[in-house]
Amino acid sequence: DTEVTQTPKHLVMGMTNKKSLKCEQHMGHRAMYWYKQKAKKPPELMFVYSYEKLSINESVPSRFSPECPNSSLLNLHLHALQPEDSALYLCASSQVGGGTYTDTQYFGPGTRLTVL
Amino acid sequence: AQKITQTQPGMFVQEKEAVTLDCTYDTSDQSYGLFWYKQPSSGEMIFLIYQGSYDEQNATEGRYSLNFQKARKSANLVISASQLGDSAMYFCAMEGNQGGKLIFGQGTELSVKP
How many Å lie between the alpha carbon of A108 and the closest alpha carbon of chain B? Predict the structure, then answer.
């Protein structure tokens, strides 16, 4: 069973809506990640938090706003999205982050987002 | 620049047979880790197996083994005794010394036939 949980499982939103995706991990990890994945493609990294500080932002549009309230929780706030933002959003966590090449990332089940 | 190449977009295997999924990588880092993930149609990325660049033995985890050939820069996944539940997309990934970035290949879609 995954120890990374994500809510909601599915989300449908209009282009003017504001919504949030939530992620929680119960493994005591200090790094958390957001990925975006289109069908039949590999995940694309969006953001990395390490020790609750944003360490990587892969030039993601400002309509996506991450938040890490504590080391167990990660949110992704969504506002004024476009239909092309429809995708599977995956959260992951790892022990320390920061380029430790032995650091395995464990993923949650994802949120399937549809923007109308 | 780091790169992962998976040359098999789709593969079929008969149930109970073994199958090898190919992965080659390119990196200038001396220290790196190689990972395989399974993604069923439900969407969750499931970690399968890890191989470090300094590990001399090939990694094994149950029915999964990683055939690591450092000189050839390959890290093929071998699944023994395939099961219907193995039908999924499989991603090879690498992490070097670049601050937590996993570099993924394009994936191989495996279908197990009864």
Answer: 6
